[in-house]
Amino acid sequence: MREVDRTDLVSGALIIAIGMFFFIGAQEYRMGTMSRMGPGFVPYWLGAIAMFLGGVIALTAIGRPGALPAVAFRPLLAVTAAVVAFALILPRMGLVTATFIATVVSMIGNDEARPKTIAITAVVITAVCWTIFIGLLGLPIRTLRWPF
Amino acid sequence: MDIWSNILTGFGVALSFENLVYCFFGVFLGTFFGVLPGIGSLAAVTMLLPITYYLEPTTALVMLAGVYYGAEYGGSTASILLNLPGTPSNAVTCLDGYPMTQQGRAGVALFSTTVASFIGGTCGILALYALSPIIVQWALAFGPAEYFAVMIFGLVAAATVTQDAPAKGLAMVVLGMALGTVGSDIDSGVARFTFGYFELRDGLSFIALAMGLFGLSEIILSIREKVNAPFIQKVTLRSMIPSRDDVRRSVGPVFRGAGIGGFFGALPGTGPSIGTFISYAIEKRIARDPSRFGKGAIEGVTAPESANNAAVQAAFIPTLTLGIPGSATMAVMMGALLIHGITPGPQLMTQNPDIFWGLAASFWIGNLLLIVLNIPMIGLWVRMLKIPYGVLYPAVICFICIGVYTVRTSAFDVFVVLGFGLLGYALRLMRFELAPILIGFILGPMVEENFKRAMLIFRGDFTRMLERPISGTLLGMTALLLVWTVWTVIRNRRRGVSGGLAALKGTGNRNAD
């Protein structure tokens, strides 16, 4: 078997998939004619070009070596969880709760952080965020809210 | 002459108390974020964008521009002291800046950088003054066909010129443009790709897109690498004074760098990075003793830094006069203008001359503030470098979330940030450059609109676009660029090497400018 750069093979496949999404999705909208283009025309052709480029990327991956990149699961999950927590908590329980919890959750992504550091950092960041966004800028966000 | 009165009016606007204060804020915060490794000028501008919603358009722009060039400037500090480029365009500065630090000459490197940046920035501003009125004269005669052609040229240039893998760069541009089609179609009002989400009717929030791609994904990537506080050399004011030899060596490179940076910065689609790479390569080639480079040659610091700041200022030329951003950060600046209800383009100079000339004047004042701010305050910036990344990134996450949420008071947009953060992380792992996505996203809807209008005028006959002198030339240049790109890729593949630019770029940066 010939060598393949797996990263670029996957990259090409991803671009083809994204292109296909727009290519097929655009067919739900009117295409129109060249002189009077409908809403589907541009996304349809962008999808087609993306699929072509994805094909080029995948084809050029053949013939040179390359491994798949390693995914950093712990940081990935911690950051995801922190943002989800923030988005769910902020409208319901206010800025202070949301920043505090998001900070704590995101710091779990760093395997070297100790509980004491996490607690202090969370308090400081919450205080800084409140000072800047509510104290100084007066943004219309609730400081604290108790939904129950 | 008319131009003098315009420049004077500009300084009148820029020197108003409010603008001066916000210019100072912008430059200060920009340097602050630029010094922190892992936060580029793009992330800095995007994070501070929500704060400017409550300001006058001119003041907001003055501040954001200050953040931009402040961050580009601040990035050099981390490059020189830690070998970590704060922004990608500072990557070249590491090559000789860090060796200077190892030789105990960090102070000299930092001081020369400040002065070189100021001179480069000034040259860029002079280019802005000189070229903008001329381009505007031309651009006023532009029809949809010409706009379409300029934008396509800019997009293709952004995707191919600085990229190691042009097909991947082009794919990112197309992805950005496709993402730009989400939302109501301008002509028909049809909601495209909204899946019933009311929040998507106005399109994806570009702040959420930018912060996800450049903020969150960078954090996920960096948590493992940069948790510990680094050791940093002490920098005293006295150690900053350069020797006579340093000055003599730097004069030529600084002005050459400014010229190169200004040229590449002014081209639509090529950001400041390429100017810094090329100016470094040229200095190395024409040097009497090229072996000094990479071992702490002062020209290797001053030339690219001058080029960088000249490019940053010159990048405002296509943005302000044509409405075509030269780099991803410029795309964010343009987004900021649009949010404030100002459409960048040739009309800006004629209809809002106070904004245009006020902004231009504020650049110079901001550059002056940078010198005043940075030479005495270098100790503060050095101390800031000691903030460990482990406590910095949670704060950045909170800032991103709050910033995105407040734009439309919408938790939906926070999920959009997350989506783009994850997409950005995946794309970075697969070695895609992300900057072209943002440029494509901002320009995409404009390309579509102008293309549709042009085709309507030409009754669907594309060849009529090629017959017009300006649009034909630009589309021809785009085609040549594509052919040249394909040719270089094939040639490099045969030789089994990547180009000189790619080798230079391998100095450890993953940011986008």
SSE sequence of chain A, one letter per element: HHHH
- Strand percentage of chain B: under 5%
Give the averaged pLDDT of chain B, no decimals. Answer: 83
- What is the general shape of chain A? flat
Helix percentage of chain B:
over 70%
Helix/strand class of chain B: mainly alpha
Question: How many structural domains can be distinguished in the coordinates of chain A?
Answer: 2
SSE ordering of chain B = HHHHHHHHEEHHHHHHHHHHHHHH
Number of strands of chain B: 2
Helical content class of chain A: 55-70%
Query: What is the alpha-carbon Rg of chain A in Å?
Result: 24 Å
Q: How is the biggest beta sheet of chain A arranged?
A: none
Major sheet description of chain B: 2 strands, antiparallel
Report on the structure:
The complex is a heterodimer of chains A (148) and B (513). Chain A has 2 domains: 6-60; 73-136, no CATH class. The radius of gyration of chain A is 24 Å and the shape is flat. Chain A has helices spanning 6-25, 41-60, 73-107, 115-136. Chain A contains 4 helices and no strands. With 148 residues, chain A is an all-alpha fold. The longest helix of chain A is centred in the middle third of the chain and has 35 residues, at 73-107. Chain B is mainly alpha-helical and 513 residues long. Chain B has helices at 2-14, 17-35, 41-48, 57-82, 91-102, 106-139, 144-160, 166-180, 206-222, 244-266, 272-286, 299-314, 316-322, 328-339, 346-351, 353-384, 389-408, 411-429, 435-457, 463-467, 469-495, 500-505; strands at residues 183-184, 191-192. Chain B has one domain (2-226, 233-505). Chain B is built from 22 helices and 2 strands. In chain B, 60% of the residues are buried. In chain B, strands 1-2 form a two-stranded antiparallel sheet. In chain B, strand 1 (183-184) and strand 2 form a beta hairpin. The chains are: A mainly alpha (148), B mainly alpha (513). At the A-B interface, helix 1, helix 2, helix 3 and helix 4 of A face helix 8, helix 9, helix 17, helix 18 and helix 19 of B.
